[in-house]
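Risk mitigation, structural track. In case the binding assays with flavin mononucleotide fail to produce interpretable data, a predicted complex structure has been prepared as a fallback.
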Amino acid sequence: MKKFPKLKSKIILAPMHDTTNLAFRLMCKEYGAALVSTELLSANAIAKNNKAVLRLAVTDKSEKPNVIQLFSQNTSMLVKAAKRLEKDFDIIDFNIGCPSERIMQQGSGGALLRRKNKIKEIVKKVSSAIKIPFTVKMRVGFDRDNSLEIAKICEEQGASAITIHARTVLQGYSGHSDWEIIKKIKQNLKIPVIGNGDIWNGADAKKMLEETGCDYVMVGRAAIGNPFIFKAINHFLETGEVITQNKDERISDYFEYIKLAKKFKIFNLFDAKTKAQEFTKGFEGSSKFRKELNTAKSFGVIKKLLQEF
Ligand SMILES: Cc1cc2nc3c(=O)[nH]c(=O)nc-3n(C[C@H](O)[C@H](O)[C@H](O)COP(=O)(O)O)c2cc1C
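Fallback model:
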């Protein structure tokens, strides 16, 4: 087992499809995220040198320690992809929780939670094939909680850390992340445990750290359109004080994001629109703004709308 690095803060950005690209990750990092990760990427595609997927694996030294998340149910493809990626990344994370039909139809993501022997084989083979930490991000089970058994298998087979989103796959986002399960896993494992699910602010993060004893907390939905959340949570953990951003500050972050996206050549109009919606969500006038944004045919129009917003 390769040791998971000691991180500079307690708060980690969750991998999110179509969200955590390099520009977004760097902003979260700048605001104090301890660790950031790519979205889940197909190990099969990477092993087969698929250029479109490899473009999503673009990274930069300023985001180090850097993490790439993979999905697959094919052990040899995972080994091949992991060996190819280990020179560019510090950690390879394996997804066994994604509830998306597209992923589960392939027997990957959350579907693997029903196949503990397959998980055992994958974690053993991949973690021993590479020199960098191999971590696992899981939900608590497919339709019921069998997380402790799976988490222990992962630890025994060489995983360096476990992230647990404490819902079943079938739950989707309904109900709550059951932090009692995170606590139980932390009490029974030696490797770092990263708690995940339903962290919206500093008070939630503090509560999860205290109630579960987990080593780190991972934030997903609350970071969408709001990289500043990492500064706010870290500040709350240090001082107990709540800090927020005003509309102008948030819009200025949006333009910073666009600058980075252009710098790393990942800018596209669709993403610029989506992010404009996300970064303005919750501020006064945002629904009217969203309607106008839908018709924007160039970045110049988005810029103008934001200046008027
Ligand atoms: C838009 C979106 C995309 C996601 N994509 C991924 C992904 O690529 N890989 C992954 O492991 N989890 C993915 N997740 C799940 C999150 O990483 C996280 O586990 C989940 O949202 C619970 O955390 P939260 O309550 O802080 O949002 C995604 C979630 C959202 C909302």
